[in-house]
Amino acid sequence: MAKDSKDKFSTEGLKVPESLGVIMDGNGRWAKKRLLPRSAGHRAGAENLKELCRNCGRYGVKYLTVYAFSTENWSRPQSEVDQLMKLFVEFFEKYDPELEEEGIRVRFTGDIDALPENIRKVCREGEERSAGRQKMQLIVAFNYGGRREITQAAQSLARDVAEGKISVEDITEDSLSSRMYLPDVPDPDLIIRPSGEMRISNFLLWECAYSEFWVSDTLWPDFGYDELTSAFRDYAKRDRRFGGLSKKEG
Ligand code: IPE
Ligand code: IPE
Ligand code: MG
221-243 pLDDT, tens per residue? Predict the structure, then answer.
C-alpha cells in the first residue's frame, strides 16, 4: 500500500464526522463520458469505494455508510442488476485483505433477508470475518430503502402490540429507532452526494433528520481524497442547531 505523507490526514481546519453517509451515484454517467458500458462505471465505482474506506479510516471517521443498491434499483435492466450483484460479491473477495489491513469492520444495512442466498452468505461471512476490527465500521446499504426500513420497524412494533408484549403508548421515537436495521449506528452527521443530484433517493430517511448535506458535481468514480477533504472543511463551518439556537447566541 502506498505511503501517505505525514500530514495528509491532518485534521487542522477540518471537522471529521463521526458518522458519514455517501450516496455513490454517477457510475453510469462516468462510463458514458468515456464511451464505455455502464458496467465499466460500476467497476470503477467499486474501486473508488476501496479508496474512500481507506481515506475515511485514516481521517478518523468511525461509521461510514455507503449506498450501494437501493430497493428501487431492481427496476434497472436485469443484466445491470446481475452485474451489480456480481461486483458486490467480488468487492469483498478482492478487497477484504485491504479492509483488514486498515482495521475496517464490515456490516450491512437493508432488506438483506430478501436477497438471494449467495449474496446473504457474502454478507454473513463478511460480518463474521471482520467482527473484531476496531478502527472504522463500513456499513454497506444494499437492497436498502428508507421507507422499507421504517415500514419494517413499524411492523415489528405492531407485532409486539398484537401479541400483547407492549402497548400502543410504547411506540415512541426511541422504540421505533430501536427497530431500525442497525440501531447502534449513530445517525449520519454528514451525507455526501456526488454527481450533482440534490435528492435523498430513499437513503437513511429516518436517520437523516438532522444530517448536514454536501453535494458535488464530480461523478462517483472520480470522487477522491481532495473532495472528501473539501467536504470536511465545509462541514467544520456548519452550525448544527438541531432546532435550538446557535452556540454563539445561546
Ligand atoms: C450509482 O451509479 C450506482 C447505483 C445506483 C447502483 P448510477 O448507475 O446510478 O449512475 P448514473 O446516475 O446513471 O450516472
Ligand atoms: C441512488 O442512486 C442509489 C445508489 C447510489 C445506490 P440512483 O441513481 O438510484 O438514484 P436516482 O434514481 O437518481 O434518484
Ligand atoms: Mg444514479
Answer: 999 999 999 999 999 999 999 99
Ligand nearest to the CA of 191: 2
- The model's pLDDT over 17-27, given as tens digits with 9 standing for 90+, comes to 999 999 999 99
Evaluate: CB of 194 within 6 angstroms of ligand 1.
no
pTM as predicted: 0.97
The domains found in the chain, sorted by start residue, are 17-234 (3.40.1180.10)
Distance 115 CA to ligand 1 centre (A): 20
Active site residues: 25, 73
Q: 99 near 131, Cβ under 8 Å?
A: no
Nearest listed ligand to the Cα of residue 70: 2
The stretch 192-208 carries a mean pLDDT of 98
**Residue 237 per-residue DSSP state:** H
List Cα–Cα distances, 153 to 73, 150, 168, 180, 183, in angstroms.
22, 5, 14, 6, 11
**Using CA positions, which residue lies closest to atom 10 of ligand 2?**
201
